[in-house]
Amino acid sequence: MSEKIDVAIIGPGNIGTDLMYKIKKRSKFMNLKLMAGIYSTSEGLKLAAQQGVETSSEGIDAILADKMIKIAFDATMAGAHKKHAPLLKEAKIKAIDLTPAAVGPYVCPVVNLDQHYDVDNLNLITCGAQATVPVVYAVSQVTKVKYAEIVATIASKSAGPGTRQSIDEFTQTTARALMDVGKAETGKAIIILNPAEPPIIMRNTIYLIVEDQDENAIRGTIDNMLLKLQEYVPGYRLRMPPIFDDMKVTVVTEVEGAGDYLPSYSGNLDIETSAAVAVGDQLASKLLCKER
């Protein structure tokens, strides 16, 4: 299939710029037509222009004015996306939301994307959710998960202004996703910004209280999920084998970034942008099939 769907990114910050490189390098079905921001001097817009991408400092208005764009990635902030969402919907542009605004349904590509192809707004939850919800969901397939608590530790240097201003939304949205998508009965999320030098890569500690502790079944389902995640996040791995203690299971994972734009320690941003490309490519493929 040689055709591609035209897409745009709004928000030329760290996340948007990394996403730009990933779409350009890896996407099979998307053509990045436009990168939009609100500051003409933005480094992200400068880099996009160097990659041959059309740029604009007119924000979402530039995306709404381009009738060829079918998918828009919002890499701004939760508050901004709540304003963008109805405008994109009216323009019949599918929105893939990389903020914790939670306007649309929570989507984790390896868990539930197939349930949401037809919705107009897909929320990628948070980096913490993308890194932990698949593990919780995998375990929930072999035993009831009564409680899930995750602690996401990221390098302070990888947390930009948008991330820092959305900490409350991060914890609330991630906790809900552990239940709504991960299928835990109760969920809790904590994020830690570690100022260590040199910066650490993203690490996630996942505590689960389960109903039945079948160690072989739990290890097997986690290993299977790990392989699915690594198809689009090669740097995702277990830091150690799962730990079993009565009805408690502890899983520790880490995410090393691909280094497309951001340093490799920014695995927290890498898993979010990698998920965005995985979701966008599948949506674009569906749109191309409809157009044929």
Describe what this molecule looks like in 3D.
The protein has 292 residues and is an alpha/beta fold. Helices cover 39% and strands 24% of the residues. It folds into two domains: 5-124 and 271-291, NAD(P)-binding Rossmann-like Domain (Rossmann fold, 3-Layer(aba) Sandwich); 127-262, Dihydrodipicolinate Reductase, domain 2. The chain has helices spanning 14-26, 43-50, 60-65, 78-90, 127-140, 161-165, 167-180, 215-230, 267-291, and strands spanning 5-10, 30-36, 54-56, 71-74, 94-97, 121-123, 145-155, 187-194, 202-210, 236-238, 243-245, 248-255. It has a six-stranded parallel β-sheet with strand order 3-2-1-4-5-6, with helices on both faces. Strands 7, 8, 9, 10, 11 and 12 form a six-stranded mixed β-sheet that branches. Helix 1 (14-26) links the parallel strand 1 and strand 2. The chain is globular and about 60 Å long. The mean pLDDT is 95.
Sum up the structure in keywords.
292 residues; Rossmann fold; single chain; six-stranded mixed sheet; alpha/beta; six-stranded parallel sheet; Dihydrodipicolinate Reductase, domain 2
Strand content: 15-25%
Low-pLDDT ranges? none
Quaternary organisation of the protein chains: single chain
- Return the CATH architecture of the largest domain: 3-Layer(aba) Sandwich
- Total number of strands: 12
- Main-sheet strand order equals 3-2-1-4-5-6
CATH superfamily of the largest domain: NAD(P)-binding Rossmann-like Domain
What's the overall geometry?
globular
Tell me the structural class: alpha/beta
